Amino acid sequence: MYCALILRADYENPEMVYLFEEKELEKIVKRPENASDINFIKQLYAWDKRKQTATSDTKYKGKSLYNLIWNPLDSLLRGIKTIYLAPSGFLHKISFAAIPYSDTNILSDKYQINYVSSTREITLKKKTYNFIEKENYARIYGGISYDFDSVKIAELT
Fold first, then answer.
1. Where does the record place the CHAT domain (predicted)?
2. What's the CA gap between 74 and 19, in Å, rounded?
3. Which of 1, 5, 77, 81 is the most buried (most CB within 10 A)?
4. H-helix or E-strand containing 114?
5. In a domain, 45, yes or no
6. 113 and 85 Cβ atoms separated by less than 8 Å
7. Can you give the pTM of this predicted structure?
8. Residue 77 DSSP SS3
């Protein structure tokens, strides 16, 4: 079972939304045996305007992908521009930014999508790095041999 937790500044508590069972997603993203990589990706993230028939060779799955993963969240995200995602399980294989929500638009057209490995990262302050440690200070490296054999390095140490 896949669910989403919606955290918004105007919510007192997170809202949990049921999305789907994994087998439903597997059915959509199952790659046909004869499909090339590029054709599979095109079909997965394409929103077909034409009515598909049971005899159609090409099954565009973008609309199904949107309806399964994103449509249940859409009404809760009105007015939101930035999304933080911590996908788990099979969702790691999905490019959320490429999911279409119409025949001409994808989610990255509507949202700034940021991936995090854990929702904990959202609460952490972003660290800024000061690469200049001291005024009038420099690190200089010379004589670097990028083609040096790792076996020779091991022999020298």
1. 62-123
2. 12
3. 77
4. strand 112-115
5. yes
6. yes
7. 0.70
8. helix
Is position 28 within any domain?
Answer: yes
Range of the domain at 67: 2-123
Contact (Cβ atoms closer than 8 angstroms) between residue 119 and residue 86:
yes
CA-CA distance, 62 to 41, in Å (whole number)? Answer: 10
DSSP string, 1-51: -EEEEE--TT-SS-EEEEEE-HHHHHHHHPPPTT--HHHHHHHHT----SP
Asked if residues 58 and 43 have their Cβ atoms less than 8 Å apart, the reply is: yes
User: Residue 103 has which token pair?
Assistant: 């025949």
Cβ neighbours of residue 33 closer than 8 Å, sequence gap 6 or more: none
In a structure prediction context, what are the per-residue pLDDT tens digits for the chain, which is 157 residues long? Answer: 999 999 888 999 999 999 999 999 999 888 878 878 888 888 889 887 555 454 455 678 899 999 999 999 999 999 999 999 999 998 998 999 999 999 899 999 999 999 988 888 877 766 555 555 566 666 777 777 777 777 777 777 7
